[in-house]
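User: Good morning. I'm curious how zinc ion would be positioned relative to this chain. Could you predict the structure with it bound?
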Amino acid sequence: MENLSNTPTAQPPVIYRKDYQPFPWLLPETELVFNLGLETTLVLATFTVTRNPDAEASQQLRLNGDGLTPARVTVDDVTIENPEMDGDDLVLTLSGDSHKIMIETELDPSSNTQLMGLYASNGMLCTQCEAEGFRRITFFPDRPDVLSTYWVHMSGPKDLFPVLLCNGNKVKEGDSVGGHHFAEWHDPWPKPSYLFALVAGDLVAREDTFTTMGGREVDLAVWVRAEDLDRTEHAMASLIRSMKWDEETFGREYDLDVYNIVAVSDFNMGAMENKGLNVFNTKYVLADSDTATDADFDAVEGVIAHEYFHNWSGNRVTCRDWFQLSLKEGFTVLRDQLFSQDMHSESVKRIEDVRILRSAQFPEDSGPLAHPIRPDSFREISNFYTATVYNKGAEVIRMMRSMAGPEKFRKGTDLYFDRHDGEAATCEDFISAIEDGAELDLTQFRGWYRQAGTPRVAAELVQTGGTTELRLTQSVPDTPGQSDKAPMPIPLKIALHDRAAGKLGEEQLIVLSEAEMRVPLGEAAEPVLSINRGFTAPVVIERDIASADLAFLAAHDDDPFARYEAMQELVVGHLLGAENAGSAQDITEAMGAIIADGSLDDSMRGELMALPGVTYLMEQVEKADPTALHEAREGLKKTLGVGLRSELAQLYDRAAAIGLDDPQGRGARKVKTMALGLLAAGDPGAANLLAAHQYDHADNMTDRQGALMTLCGFDTPERVDRLADFYERYRANDLVIDKWFTLQALSTLPGVLDHVRELAKHADFTLSNPNRARSLYMALASNPAAFHTPSGEGYRMIADLILALDPINAQTAARFVPALGRWRRMEEGRAALMRAELERIAKAEGLSRDTSEQVTRSLG
Ligand code: BES
Ligand code: ZN
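Assistant: Good morning! Here's the predicted structure, ligand included:
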């Protein structure tokens, strides 16, 4: 019965990439029979194993399990009494070349709080198998290089589970005795066990169809609870756009008769690409303008696209082992980013993606958890679904694309899909295919897969006899277990502008492959360097540049990213008190120019107006004092709010006049809330009333949430009233109540820690739902003033949370550890307090493998 424990191990073994061995057996077909019940589910697995000619022969068949006890095991129809177990695994000794194996297990989905394997959520049953959840359902070679064709028979009470879904195509269904019914599904595409999925529940669907470029008609369905059906339109439209785009841009066609998406409220991650049956966190399916912000709409579209794109980059071509995770995730993130760039503004999307990289991946790459995009070892694979594997992984492939150009890159990806269709491939296979198809030499480029750490590129302009020369130097910093790193090819788009002539230079792509490089750039009376345009490389550029030059770039560069970057550099320099940094007055003028620039659309204007976050600022200094950085940033906001009061008010009024469905509406809403935020810093009294007014008259969640966020910074009756109104208005909607928790935990008011403690006792708060747990505590961990309170109280609260959540949901608990892991980059006092909390967690008994690995690595 016990399939629920996330077995604690004192010293979980380290698994190394270099130790990879192919599995000695093949499993061409797998048959699964599920007798479904919320408290008791019986699983009968049947498969024939044959020897793998490409592996070293073995007498042993190791079948992974996690917390399972075999109810019955037969080999060639003979029952094995007391089958041999090795830890959680079942080990069978086989003498012949081919054997039929049958295994029965019994599960209790209702007590599965880890949300891995088969679990219950809101009365329905669903599964999550990536990375190693299938072994919580039955004993199996639960590794991505064992591909099998699945036949599934599922049955259960029709009243509880009117809808029965699985991978592939439905081949049969019908009623059976005692109010039960059944369905049979066949997935013709061989797949690894991590892509298996099953759903049984009382669901309704939004249905549509898509005709593929080859003329195949596909039935599409988005399955939700009845009360959520009217919020599925955007998800369906996003799916159809994704299918079309992948045909046009990557030549990829869908390959089954059905594509099902199911929304579940209890889910550890965002969504999962199971073959033909994606399972989604409701957060990335449900959206309408009353309950979802513009950003939520974009997130739904992006995640739907991401999981759809996995059908080729992940499912048709899968990973040989989990060290190759970036093969599917990095590539698929790049694909979803390119898709979103095409659907909306290319430059705005690029800026958003760089902001995510810098705030989530750069800190990882410079901290105790740094690892290459293709890691060399791990204890628990769930801990390696990181910003490095995902976002840096996407950047690395994007660099290949920049060097090859989009057409040649497409030749490379075509060759990759063609060569490895139906296989479990490696990152090396991908690189080779791009090399051959795109005609690039990537020998040295492979360093990006091996070496962790964000490269630093120092750039200097030197005048040599009338011409300007660019001198570049690169270095890759040491990271845990890695030092003395080799230079890597760094593609940089650059241009030399002439400030005196107001002239913009020609863009060129250079590749810095050595430690040093000199590039002659021609003549300019007042040369201004524009570098890493479009953010062609995930590196840090170090340069001495006059604030007047930054202001020039911010106002005039023809590369939108470079304008954004110049504005960020100007603000960062000022806030960190760098030498030659611009004054608050310089920033006020630059911001004023951006507000007044009639050539910008509001979406881009909003990006240019955004101030760098405290996390990014912390990353810029050796030892951070988060309170000081936060206060400096708030101080600048105030200066801007006062200095640009009338400009901001005008911008606000102009934006407020644009209606919900106007094509300019999204940009308008973005700058409106930004203007409100700056006005709030300059004149809190007036902004408090303006925000309350915006809240009361909002006809969409973007405006309502934006107003409430501003109000949450004020200790006023308006804040209290609107928070109460928000709760009453949306109390039936979990996703909106998550926002209610988050907004309060992000507040800059002094009493926020006590308030979070109160919220944790709220009737609607629970640790068993990951969205809800994160809504309160991830917000707290990302609230710099609160989390980094000098007393260490914020750290203690997150440590307490980790300890309380770990036995319930280890994966989700472990994701809070990195917040405490950055102690080395903190000033002494906080460093000691953070470390002490990590040590307290480390001492706890029965810690999961997930959390113990993260804590051990963080302590270093
Ligand atoms: N394959 C993952 C989902 C996953 C991750 C399952 C880790 C189990 C463990 C999926 O394709 C994915 O990457 N989802 C992301 C969202 C995506 C848009 C980056 C997620 O869930 O956060
Ligand atoms: Zn993915």
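The chain has 28 helices and 32 strands. The CA atoms of residues 54 and 117 lie 30 Å apart.
Let me know if you'd like a different ligand tried.
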